[in-house]
Amino acid sequence: MAKKAKKAKTGRTAKPAKTKTAARRVSPTRKTATSTSGSALVSLSAGFTVSDAEKSVAWYRDVLGFTVKERWEHEGQFRGAQMTSGGATLNLGQDDWKMGRDRIKGQGTRLYITTRPKIDRLADQIKARGGSLDHEPRNEWGMRAFSIKDPDGFNLTFMTMLKK
Length: 164
Hints:
Layout: E1 46-50, H1 53-62, E2 67-74, E3 77-85, E4 88-94, E5 110-114, H2 119-128, E6 133-140, E7 143-149, E8 155-161
Parallel strand pairs: 1-4, 5-8
Antiparallel strand pairs: 2-3, 3-4, 6-7, 7-8
């Protein structure tokens, strides 16, 4: 039989003392409606609204090595493109400026992109093609990673898991 918590003089049950623990990664244990049959999600693609779609498409193609899967035009004007690299897809669309030309882009946004193990080679290739890394590849949180900003200030972190 479990022991009952002692009652304080106020008549309330005393709470157990809190203990501090180090931060650690944990797997979610809460079941969702789809957990028994698998997720209904198949893929996720990000989309950025950019200041200059032609410039951004060229940067993702020439610096990061993406390819243009699809170009979008409307009434003869270039509006954006779907960019791909391996299993990654990124949609870049021209800003229509309805929210003002001084709108800050990229603030508070970061994409995490998982790569193959040769991440240092990827970083070197990006630098050789004119990219400027926010930081060189480094080990942290069980991953080797580096970061870069695109022309509009969107943050991209390329990472690969370290072997255990």
